[in-house]
Amino acid sequence: MSIYDRLHCVDADNRSIKRKVVLLREHAFSDRDSRIYYCMNGRGANIQYSDEDAVKLVDLMNAEVVIGKRRDVMGIVRPEELTDQARLQISRITPSYGCRDGKKSAYRGVVFLPDGRFTDAVNLDNWRAAMAYAGLQKEYQYRIEIYDRQGQCVFCTYRA
Question: In 3-state terms, what secondary structure has residue 18?
């Protein structure tokens, strides 16, 4: 049973859902418990779409990537409605380029919740990837910090 319903959403019709948290209709994935996903991309993520167009989604319960249909999207979840667990799961989502595991990364991204808790660092190869990560996270996180190899904070932004 999902804690989210239509009251937690804004209408997704005639809107891009790319880089948004979306709520899927109950019938979308009958084999899954989750109905809340982060939309990465796909033809169906655009403003102009058909109901059959595919969307690439990340399950915010277990980080599994799945392909769904635009018709399955009920709405876009308002950021203030997200649980801390969902925010922490979003923090692990990185741009599809310029990210790797390991110590040779040029930058590390860290996000903070309002109570001061923070996530493990996400490795980012270059400044472009670091800024893409900040852009991807900015709507959902309280604070985002980017650190260089020496551990110096080189970028910080807060959500009002």
Answer: coil
